[in-house]
């Protein structure tokens, strides 16, 4: 089972990957939205913002998200680490329910290039 530190590191790596991206991925990550990532097996939620192509983690809370972020993710810590490490395919994980992504319809359309 991934640790809290490994999950935070995975989010930092994802943030760096988004910041270094170009083309469609860079455009999709250019949103300015509140973000939450609930790690189900650790029962911890990272909250922050997707802004200027980076994920800014502002807080780590025990339990599920306390407020409804504009972009909401939920998964296990192992799945987060595997996704960021390229060992888990996001579309398949999302389709099977291993990863949950919730956002407004327009945001989902913009984020689709990140999901390939």
Automatic annotation (TrEMBL):
This is Sterol-binding protein. Gene3D superfamilies: SCP2 sterol-binding domain. InterPro entries: SCP2_sterol-bd_dom, SCP2_sterol-bd_dom_sf. Residues 33-103 form the SCP2 domain. Pfam families: SCP2 (PF02036). It comes from Streptomyces nitrosporeus. It comes from the Bacteria.
């Amino acid at each position: 089972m991934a640790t809290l530190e490994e999950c935070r590191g995975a989010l930092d790596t994802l943030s760096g990957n988004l910041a270094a991206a170009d083309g469609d991925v860079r455009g999709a990550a250019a949103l300015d939205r509140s973000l939450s990532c609930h790690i189900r097996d650790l029962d911890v939620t990272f909250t922050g913002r997707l802004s200027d192509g980076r994920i800014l983690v502002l807080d780590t809370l025990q339990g599920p998200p306390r407020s409804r972020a504009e972009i909401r993710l939920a998964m296990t810590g192992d799945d987060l680490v595997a996704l960021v490490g390229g060992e888990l395919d996001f579309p398949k994980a999302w389709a099977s329910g291993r990863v949950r992504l919730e956002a407004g319809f327009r945001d989902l359309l913009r984020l689709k290039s990140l999901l390939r």
